[in-house]
Amino acid sequence: MPISIALAKDQSHRALWRVRLGAALRTALACTMVGCTTLYGPKPIRGLLSYPAFTYVTTILIVSDATLGDAMRGFWQVAYATVQVVVPSMLSLWLIGPARVTKEVAAVAVGLSAFVVALPESTPLLCKRIAFGQIVIVYVGSVVHGSQTGAFMHPIHVAASTAFGAFASGFAMLFPFPRLAYCQVRKGCRFYAENASKRLSLIVEAISAQATTAAHDLISQEKCLSKAGAKILKTVHDNLGGMTWERPDIKFLKPKWKDLGDKLQNMEIPIKGMEVALSFCPLFPIGMIDEEFKQVLETSKLQIRLKLEHAKCFVPFDATKAPEGKGETSDKQLWTPKTTSIVPENLPALFLLYCMEFLLDDPPIAASLDVGPKLNVEGANEKPNSFIGALTSLMIKLPSGHDFVFALKCSVSLGLAVLFGLIYNKENGYWSGLTIAISFVTGRQATFALANARAQGTAMGSIYGILCLFLFQRLMDLRFLTLLPWIIFTSFLIHSRTYGQAGAFSAVIGALLIVGRRDYGPPTEFAIARITEATIGLLCSILVELLLNPARAATLARTELSQSIGVLQDFVENISLFPRQKNVPASRVLREKHHQLKYHVNDLEKFIEEAEMEPNFWFSPLNGACYHKLMASFSTLVHLLHFVAYEIEFISEASQKQGDGSDELLKQVNEDLEFSNKIVGSTLLRCLEEATSTTTLQVLETENSPVHDIELGRSAHENAFMDSGTYDKEVDNILSCFLQHLQEVVEKAYACEDTDQKFKRQMALSLTGLGFCIHSLAREAKEIEKEVKELVKLGNPSTKHINLYKISCKNNTLSS
């Protein structure tokens, strides 16, 4: 590894260490404020803060890795949660009477209240967690204290304890200086600009390398920086929400950072395209890269660096004025690809140049990436800022099926945890419900893995607290100081893979509840009782999760794989230069399909991660190696296929504007596309979708029997497209014809004297970029087929030969 890369990694590690240490010290400061106030503060204040345990919980939930904007947002979310809980609980306790609240009544009240809080989709998750905890304390406290519980003062004490935790979190963010989300985003922009500049230099050096070994070394360095760049982008996106609370969006003050996340994503996508182009280069040096081409790459690289300077300085990226003294390179003579260079070996280099031009032109990419998996094509002309759009945004959304399931899960889990917790130990019945109240998530999670992390964290924290009290039993007034190193340690533990946020929160809260409180009885008995109550809550949570979501992550990963292949097939079959739907451009349809593919691939990645974390029990383990290879192919396709819509859109519009009679040539190009779509989509991908969607593989038992495809008029054994050699030959033949027709279109454009050089360059690069994407699509589809075969073979080790085409035909026969 070069010294510059090693120094950069060392600097990033030190910067990361400083950031995490600062977060740990602020967490320790916030907990110290709570501990000193609840242990040594004035008696009236200590009487008002009668639930210091939940004060600690609130503090930990808000302050961890937060900025000032996050703390401000957390404070208002706490206020919203408190209003949701305190007012209804006062009314219910006044109607029922605190003395008549039994275990069963408390469990039902907790379940119903949790359902009401969890159902609205618009309520933030942190707000729901805080509300769940308050609900548990209010009703369990009524059971524990009986008639001594005030119908009004008891909820007020809960609200005060929660509010003080939020206040301590915000106060800690001010020391030793405010940790502003604005500053974090500014740093992120600077780091990303530096990262992107280094990656760009490595990419240009790699594509121009004269030896394969040197090129691969540069590519490996670029991949390391690419991972760091992804982390920087995630940090910037995470801090943008806090910026809106530090610097509110005022209508007549348009902030420069308003669309910052989209602007950064606009820059990342073409760079990812360059990485893909490098990965498809078989050998180095590439024949077409001469001194003239290298000069073109250097010129484009310098122009991109000027753009990155704007990002580094935190100014709008669409500024056309270059820094003084650096603008002379933008007027270099334009280079256009020669028609003789449009051959398969040169396509990666031409696509890399296309991505550089794509980055310089700055099209609105990211604005379309955050759209949901399905777009309303018919309503494409509706303006988002219209009166109808504003009225729609003010309407209350009806809960979806997913929201109802989440609310039901929270309700039943908390109700059962409170009931069994109170039955086991009335005095410590809080902890069974509180353990799971602060850990709910809206989506799926690795239930067993996270429950194990929480159980271990609770045990570690409790044991640490007991040891601290044992060692400092003669200096009880200084006992809180022993918590500071533990708080710092658990702040770093949040970022570990083994424990994560769930285990780290449980560990720090477990120690805080023992050392940071008074009058709870012998610490050992309390620790054992709390561990037992936490286990009861976790068991209830696991039971309800299994009942409501019985499907294993491995099963969902296989289903999502089939759906991803199906969406990919749908995308391929819709690749066309001409619209197939009236008044709907082909590029828009492709964008919709791309959004759906990206959505399903993201879900597939989540299910794979969850399946690898969960225990297998008596089920077959997930074949992680195959699935990761499949994810690599799908990720490559997600990056590549994004450009197809823009290439087709430009080619279609350019042909209409040019009006040079190239329609006939484009029709021939479109015929090549449709033929390729038939081989890759209608044949190969359809077979893969059917093979991965089979619920049973009993069709393999009669594999040697012939199966006839009525549409193709031949048997499965005669299917030429399933044979690797024949498939490659067919794809090469199609690509050869496709490139020949592209070459004719480019020559036609070059022959037009009225067309300027920039247009010719863009037309040539768009056509060659489309050729690269189609060829890469066929190649990655074949890689997906190979891994699907491996998955099927591992599930059926007794089968010597796997014929996916036959499985697809038999599955269709069985399903019909």
From TrEMBL:
Main location: membrane
Cell location: Cell membrane
Highest taxon listed in the record's lineage: Eukaryota
Keyword terms, alphabetized: Cell membrane, Membrane, Transmembrane, Transmembrane helix
Gene Ontology molecular-function annotations: transmembrane transporter activity
Membrane-protein topology: Multi-pass membrane protein
Alphabetized Pfam families for the sequence: FUSC
Entry protein name: p-hydroxybenzoic acid efflux pump subunit
Gene Ontology cellular-component terms listed: plasma membrane
Presence of keyword DNA-binding: no
InterPro entries, alphabetized: PHBA_efflux_AaeB/fusaric-R
Transmembrane regions listed in the UniProt entry: 48-68, 75-95, 126-144, 156-177, 404-424, 499-515, 527-548
